Amino acid sequence: MKILVASHGTFASGIKSSLNILLGKSDNVTVIDAYLDQDNLDEKLEAYFQSIPETEQVIMLSDLYGGSVNQNMCLHLSRPNTFLVAGVNLALVLEIALKTEPLGREQLEAIVKDSREALRIVEISTKSVDEDDFFGGS
Amino acid sequence: MVKLLRLDERLIHGQIAIKWSRNLGVNRILVLNDEAAKNDLIKKSLLMAAPQTLKVAITSMDEGIDMLNDPRGESLSILVLVKTPQDVLEILQRVAGIKTVNIGNYGRVASRIGMDPRKTYRSNLYLYDSEVSILKQILETGVDCVYQTTPEDKPESINKII
Q: ipTM, 2 decimals?
């Protein structure tokens, strides 16, 4: 399974930099920073898909639903075994990058739902367990 | 049982929650740090970073060492986290049976002595000479001590680094 992250500007390569710190490596993650030079996004996407075996699953992640990067990625949804999720956050890429097997639609739905939970107003309310609780249970 | 004793000045954070706890398959995390134990805000921010699937305790050095010596811990699989080389050494001196020490991140966050920067040993390891000598004392206890930031990184013997 391969992951392709694309963004307006360097958000995508920034995500890759964060992944390398958190995971140690991210070989199956490819990034495209769009609109930084004259290079054409369509051509970059085309070249990426040319380089991936036809049977390999590809999960595309775009920075913004409705944005032009997302629109360009949409055009590749006709490829078999390919998904596109818009509005990427780090929690989402991390969860997907930790999977080694191809994902089903339902699994991906669940990961998207969990990653949405990571976008939240932070409330400080958690508790440390006390000694008895630490040794109790499994 | 202590599965791994790790020196990580960020204590519980992304690498711990996402990689180490899953990779080691532990069911408890015990953080020993006097400052965190008495500061509720630090405690809560650390707990926020912890995986929801396992139990986490944040204690002072003394309390934590008592817990590590508690026979009830033998059936558990515990990841122990501390913030300084000195704390690693103290635990090794006061708790029997720890076989592996992992050095993950140290020297970026730890307070400096005066204006002098630490010497760079690896991309996530910066030490003063006084801290190198503590690591040498750690090695002298006979424990297996390696530098390894994430489970994917190849472990390197501290012996060869310092």
A: 0.73
